[in-house]
Amino acid sequence: MVAFGGGHGLAAALAAWRRLTPDLTAVVTVADDGGSSGRIRREMPVLPPGDLRMALTALADDGADTRQMAALLQHRLGGTGVLAGHPVGNLMLTGLVEMHGGDTVRALDDLCRLLGARGRVLPMADAPLDLVARVESTDPDDPARTRTIRGQVAIATTPGRVRDIIVSPPDPPVHPAVLEAIAAADVISLGPGSWYTSVLPHLLVPRLRAALAASSARVVVVLNLEPQPGETDGFSPEEHLAVLRAHLGGVALHWVIADVDSVVDRCGLLSAVRECGAELVLAPVAELDGAPRHDPVRLAAALGSAVAAR
After folding, report:
1. Is this structure's pTM higher than 0.85?
2. What is the dihedral of CA 42, 176, 89, 28, to 10 degrees?
3. In what helix (H) or strand (E) does residue 67 lie, and over which residues does it extend?
4. Which of 49, 101, 298, 303 is the most exposed place for a label (fewest CB within 10 A)?
5. Measuring CA to CA, which residue among 303, 158, 302, 283 is closest to residue 230?
6. Residue 124's closest CA among 41, 54, 205?
7. Residues near 93 by Cβ (< 8 Å), separated by ≥ 6?
8. What backbone phi and psi angles, to 5 degrees, belong to 47?
9. pLDDT in tens, 182-213
């Protein structure tokens, strides 16, 4: 099982998938340029560590010692000095990368062992990426209706509607372990997560897209529970799928999972899913308290039902 994504969305997917298989690989976006990750990547020649750290902690073993270690990695330092706001895990991962002569995969494997991780965490590329988007203003009186915005944080917070996105550099190196994981996978998952800045970037890297297109694995997409502010404001589930379909480049889809209570137009979504050549799985996958978050147990049940029908 190989799961693609970043941030809280990937962490939610991993929390579900780990209930179904111990043979799990997370392939994590490396385009974050904000907060602690942004500060670290500007000061040191390393990949931004934040999304990698979140994936690591999502896969940590449930033992008391390993959960305490996971909590330590997530802990943000207080105070007002230069270290304020840095999660301990970002500093640990950066330190290990430096100790290993820049080998991020070796550093991640070390932390996986410390956490008793149920799976492996790999970066989507061996070089930090920048995202570049064309954003269209929603103001009809705006003289510059379309702007080019660079950077994940800027794209996520710029008012307007993202029309397309690219990665820079356009053909970054990909670690052989990532390509090997894709080739060996039985199931591959995309989403949930920030559509333009966490999900689509994986399909914009030529070597990743080619490996995914050549894979015999079944591909499942988990749709978001609601539009992402600043990225997909006003997007219906069908529009999310239309954007994804435009970026597939030969990658096949087999299942689309959506929360049964979040879909307004079931017929429209079913039609969009069928246009992708996939099957729709409508199931209750949101938190029971109504929060717009995926519940790991309910999402695992929906994923399990799809995979069992392969």
Report:
1. yes
2. 80
3. helix 64-74
4. 101
5. 158
6. 205
7. 49, 52, 53, 56, 107, 108, 111
8. -75, 150
9. 999 999 999 999 999 999 999 999 999 999 99
